[in-house]
Design goal:
Radius of gyration: 22 Å
Largest sheet: 9 strands, mixed
Distance between the termini: 53 Å
Length: about 450
């Protein structure tokens, strides 16, 4: 804690000194800072992502990292992107981290994006619904790791701020095609398929950051696809981790940051081997590198941020009869969920009927970025791009991953993403069928505020 306090004070003093020295009214460039911190657990911990695992992690394929990119425009407006090799951030932990970073560095929630890569080879965090293990010792270890992670991310933000220097920003898009819509294509029959069914979004959004001399400082890039190539018991950033390693080899001294997109229903297929994860990482890094070396669109030092938490409505929970039936016939976390919900209903405890869902928008120069919470399915990216153009960036798994966020069509169809996945997150029921409408209305509100333009919602 002493080290953390010293770093916070140093970061604040540095910022004040730089602000006075620069005279922001005369600035014509961005200021940018990057940092990284290793977050690989030091001891065996339970892993997040697959409820079928039956013991803690026992090795490392690649280290796990948290990385930060801080941007400041010509008027001193700031935005902080934190990317992590983690499965997800639950609300409890995300709120604590963003609140602490905000208090120390004077940032609002609108100015902070906390994105998880959704690797299924990362650690269990405190605040996640307990669908993995009931071992009290393992759960305590997850709490200790999460507390230390909080401290590390605050230090990470401070280091990025302290490193700020004049920079130039560019945006562009690449393309890579290893994502497969898992709802419409059976994994077991993949090798015999001659046509893959969508919807899909193969876009690879890229932001390049160069220092004032033209040297690469960082590259932030994304893709809408589950980080589930691997399913073993060793820590790994999966394909996204390998892609970042490849880019950092190509640009020594630069930092590569991966952000997950709207890949809730997209899987890397085929999968289940380290060479496949490495292959997908190379494919993704090659797509980024191609864009990096082209004439990218330069972004003027003008930044705006928006944020809101909207109430998404939940359907009615199952009846007592249905829950009793689940308790009798189910096992593991499904049985535990049904029993817990049944106990709450029978005791007269209030059952949540809605959830505060985070929607966020950034305008970096003229580059529009939307950040959505939860495991957002690809249809949201496609719908947002219809309204704001194909160049818009759409991030999922940001700030709070509370459940899958299905489209209206998927809710009607049912299945895992639309109907039963809420059990693994501890929600009492699926979303109501207006979930897509409510989210898109908020996206439009924020988009109109950022762009100053009225959006035709009927197109």
């Amino acid at each position: 804690m002493k080290k953390l306090t010293i770093l916070m004070i140093q970061a604040l003093v540095f910022h004040i000194t730089i602000s006075l020295a620069y005279g922001k009214d005369n600035r014509t460039n961005w200021e940018a800072g990057v940092s990284r911190i290793r977050i690989t657990p030091e001891q065996p911990l339970w892993m997040a992502g697959y409820a079928s695992r039956n013991h803690a992690a026992c090795g490392t394929i690649t280290d796990l990292w948290a990385k930060a990119l801080i941007l400041e425009d010509a008027n001193g407006n700031r935005a902080l992107l934190i990317t992590t090799d983690l499965e997800s951030f639950p609300k409890y932990l995300s709120d604590r981290i963003r609140e602490k970073i905000g208090k120390v560095y004077g940032l609002t929630r609108a100015q902070i994006i906390l994105n998880s890569s959704h690797t299924h080879s990362g650690p269990l965090l405190a605040g996640m619904y307990n669908c993995y293990t009931e071992d009290s010792l393992e759960l305590k270890k997850a709490e200790v790791y999460s507390f230390r992670l909080e401290e590390k991310l605050i230090i990470l933000a401070g280091k990025a701020i302290k490193s700020m220097a004049p920079a130039r920003l560019y945006s562009g898009h690449g393309m890579v095609r290893f994502q497969v819509n898992r709802r419409n294509n059976k994994e077991s029959g993949l090798t015999s398929l001659t046509e893959l069914k969508g919807p899909n979004d193969y876009s690879v959004p890229v932001i390049k950051i160069l220092d004032i001399k033209g040297k690469p400082l960082a590259v932030a890039f994304g893709y809408a696809c589950h980080n589930t190539t691997l399913d073993g018991y060793k820590w790994c950033g999966d394909y996204a981790g390998f892609a970042q390693l490849e880019l950092e080899k190509l640009h020594p001294g630069a930092t590569a940051l991966f952000f997950q997109g709207a890949g809730g229903d997209q899987n890397p297929l085929p999968r289940s081997s380290i060479p496949l994860a490495q292959q997908y990482g190379r494919e993704l890094s090659a797509a980024v590198e191609r864009v990096f070396n082209e004439d990218m669109h330069e972004l003027t030092p003008d930044l705006a941020t928006t944020y809101a938490e909207i109430q998404l409505e939940l359907s009615n929970p199952p009846s007592e009869e249905a829950l009793n039936n689940m308790v009798r016939k189910s096992s593991g976390y499904v049985k535990r969920w049904a029993q817990e919900l049944l106990n709450k209903i029978q005791s007269g405890e209030s059952i949540p009927s809605s959830y505060p869902y985070p929607v966020q928008g950034w305008k970096i120069g003229d580059q529009i970025v939307f950040s959505l919470g939860g495991e957002v399915v690809v249809q949201y990216s496609l719908e947002i791009k219809k309204l704001f153009g194909n160049k818009v960036f759409v991030l999922g798994y940001c700030n709070d991953v509370m459940a899958y966020i299905p489209s209206e069509e998927i809710l009607k169809e049912g299945g895992y993403e639309g109907d039963t996945s809420m059990i693994a997150f501890g929600l009492p029921a699926p979303w109501k069928n207006n979930v897509q409408k409510l989210i898109m209305e908020e996206v439009v509100r924020q988009g109109e505020k950022l762009t100053g333009k009225t959006v035709n919602r009927k197109q």
